[in-house]
Amino acid sequence: MADETRFERRLDRVVVGAVTPRAAAVLISTVATVITVGAGIIMTVADHHSFPSIGAGLWWSVQTVTTVGYGDHVPITVAGRLVAALVMLVGVSFLTVITASITSAFVDRSRREQETPDADVTTATQLQEMNGRLERIEAALSARR
Fold first, then answer.
1. How far apart are CA 81 and CA 87, in angstroms?
2. Coil vs helix vs strand at 91
3. N- or C-end of the chain: fewer Cβ atoms within 10 A?
């Protein structure tokens, strides 16, 4: 794609690099942790009245990212609610896209591993053998007449 941004190209390289289940788990865990910690810190700054400490912001962030939402800490200010909406949308959608991309890479790799490089040669050989058998059958039937 000619109109890809630098971020998209970098993201493509990261996702392509996660070709093993372990690498995929590390990538997904890293992204989830960064989103959670970042959101907790940003929320403490954006809505300091409701989240007076980083611990309170992180607790809210963990609840939000995991979709538990106990409701004991909720943003009150407009800035806090905007951060919350952004965390909910980005957290869920970004993790979903990364998980889907990695799953797609696994499926593609599995498909390539199952394909044999000699499949076309094998099929051509089988067709030649079948053609030879048919010719022998036709010759035997013609000899009986």
1. 10
2. helix
3. C
